[in-house]
């Protein structure tokens, strides 16, 4: 899915525009721990085109004296993560030095930029857009976010930019692996290890307009894409220490990935930020592997792994399906397990169970543990079928939804996992009512 980022000075109307575009279709990374309340990311759709929208203004509270540095960070974030950038300016205020500064930054990238002039409520104000030609970003598009004027035309332009941008969102069938984790956990070190001598392309994939570093490498003759959320920032570390920026970049990387490597620092153990990043991968239905790095730094005895595992399983209880690896990216210890496990979980992520087999397991599960009843009605599960892969998604046809408790779905999930594994992949359920 393409990513669209909205950047601009405070009070130009970024959040208003974000809310208007996301509208009722908004589905913020819902149950991701911690990210929920920040309306930064939304899944949107226009004329059948799906995209993710980022409001960079939602990331940091603005304080007057550091506006420019914050704008630079937000612009850099947009450059790093977005496929299309919307620069929002205020038609009432007119062009400001800060607008010019940001334009200069984003004009240098290959990412398509749309210049959007907000607060143009009436025809008589339309002449106010012309001075913005000075920003050198092409034709300004006049809108009023508050009154929802001009938004359809704007979204048409956004969709056109996807087509213009050379990124092929659908057709790249190489497996994409995102390397995720908080700063200094060892992402770059691991990426360099994985690329090793085999790397065929070190910088960008030809044809991408994105500045993020995607590397293609070969493993047993197959090509894979590594999505590195650290690499580029080594040269240009302007926001790495601000957690929300890492989170937004993690979301953008996860969006494009099939398999997520969630790096944990063995020295510090699992932190809240690790849990947030893991939550993003889980909620987006991606295959996941928990990779405990810097294992060389730990004094070990025969209980060390057990106690690490216990801690991980309790703090990341929503991803009990993810395998755990203990590695040292620095000295290479067990790094060879990483790709092996990536291929395993990728297979599981794409596994399909026949309806016959699936229903055998469900019937057995029902016999073992009766479905719940409520006010004299008992839940009936008529049958189940697997609708999709990546992630495996099952439709359960039932008599009535409201007595199907979460815990019973959990139970069915466990029974399915006992029979079919699905190691490293979340499983989703869709519940459909159906009369007898
Ligand atoms: P990033 O910010 O996640 O990309 O982290 P880096 O790859 O830049 O690593 C941060 C620091 O941790 C560097 O000094 C690395 O040398 C060090 N480091 C990375 N992996 C390991 C490891 O497995 N063991 C040890 N001891 N240090 C590591």
TrEMBL record:
GO molecular function: GTP binding; ribosome binding
InterPro entries: AAA+_ATPase, G_ENGA, GTP-bd, GTPase_Der, KH_dom-like, KH_dom-like_a/b, P-loop_NTPase, Small_GTP-bd
Organism per entry: Alkalibaculum sporogenes
UniProt entry tagged with the keyword Nucleotide-binding: yes
Functional description taken from the UniProt entry: GTPase that plays an essential role in the late steps of ribosome biogenesis.
GTP-binding listed as a keyword: yes
Residues of the EngA-type G domain: 2-166, 175-350
Chain sites annotated for binding GTP 2: 181-188, 228-232, 293-296
Gene3D superfamilies listed in its UniProt record: 3.30.300.20, P-loop containing nucleotide triphosphate hydrolases
Annotated gene: der
GO biological process, one term: ribosome biogenesis
The protein's name: GTPase Der
Keyword annotations of the record: GTP-binding, Nucleotide-binding, Repeat, Ribosome biogenesis
Subunit structure: Associates with the 50S ribosomal subunit.
Binding site for GTP 1: 8-15, 55-59, 118-121
Family affiliation: Belongs to the TRAFAC class TrmE-Era-EngA-EngB-Septin-like GTPase superfamily. EngA (Der) GTPase family.
């Amino acid at each position: 899915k393409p990513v669209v980022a909205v950047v601009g000075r405070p009070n130009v109307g970024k959040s208003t525009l974000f809310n208007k575009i996301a509208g009722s279709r908004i589905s913020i990374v819902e149950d991701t721990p911690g990210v929920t309340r920040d309306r930064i990311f939304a899944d949107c759709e226009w004329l059948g085109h799906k995209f993710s929208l980022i409001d960079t203004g939602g990331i940091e509270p603005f304080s007057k004296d550091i506006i420019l540095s914050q704008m630079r960070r937000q612009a850099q974030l947009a450059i790093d993560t977005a496929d299309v950038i919307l620069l929002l300016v205020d038609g009432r205020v007119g062009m400001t030095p800060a607008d010019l500064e940001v334009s200069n930054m984003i004009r240098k990238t290959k990412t398509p930029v749309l210049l959007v002039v907000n607060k143009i409520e009436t025809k008589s104000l339309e002449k106010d857009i012309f001075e913005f030609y000075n920003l050198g970003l092409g034709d300004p598009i006049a809108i009023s976010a508050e009154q929802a004027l001009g938004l359809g035309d704007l979204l048409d332009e956004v969709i056109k930019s996807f087509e213009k941008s050379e990124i092929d969102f659908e057709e790249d069938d190489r497996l994409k692996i995102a390397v995720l984790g908080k700063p200094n956990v060892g992402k770059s070190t691991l990426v360099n290890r994985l690329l090793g001598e085999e790397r065929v392309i070190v910088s960008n994939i030809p044809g991408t307009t994105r500045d993020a570093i995607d590397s293609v490498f070969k493993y047993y003759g197959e090509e894979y894409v590594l999505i590195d959320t650290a690499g580029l920032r080594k040269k240009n570390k302007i926001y790495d220490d601000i957690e929300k920026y890492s989170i937004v970049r993690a979301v953008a990387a996860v969006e494009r990935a099939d398999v997520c490597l969630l790096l944990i620092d063995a020295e510090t153990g699992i932190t809240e930020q690790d849990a947030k990043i893991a939550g993003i991968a889980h909620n987006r239905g991606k295959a996941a592997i928990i990779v405990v790095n810097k294992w060389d730094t730990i004094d070990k005895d025969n209980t060390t792994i057990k106690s690490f595992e216990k801690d991980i399983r309790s703090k990341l209880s929503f991803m009990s399906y993810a395998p755990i690896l203990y590695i040292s990216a620095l000295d290479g210890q067990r790094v060879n397990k990483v790709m092996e496990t990536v291929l395993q979980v990728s297979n599981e992520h794409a596994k399909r169970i026949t309806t016959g087999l699936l229903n055998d397991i469900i019937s057995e599960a029902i016999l073992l543990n009766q479905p719940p009843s409520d006010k004299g009605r008992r839940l009936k599960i008529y049958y189940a079928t697997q609708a999709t892969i990546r992630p495996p998604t099952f439709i359960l046809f039932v008599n009535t939804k409201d007595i199907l408790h979460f815990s019973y779905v959990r139970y069915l999930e466990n029974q399915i996992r006992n029979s079919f594994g699905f190691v490293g992949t979340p499983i989703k359920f869709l519940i459909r009512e159906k009369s007898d």
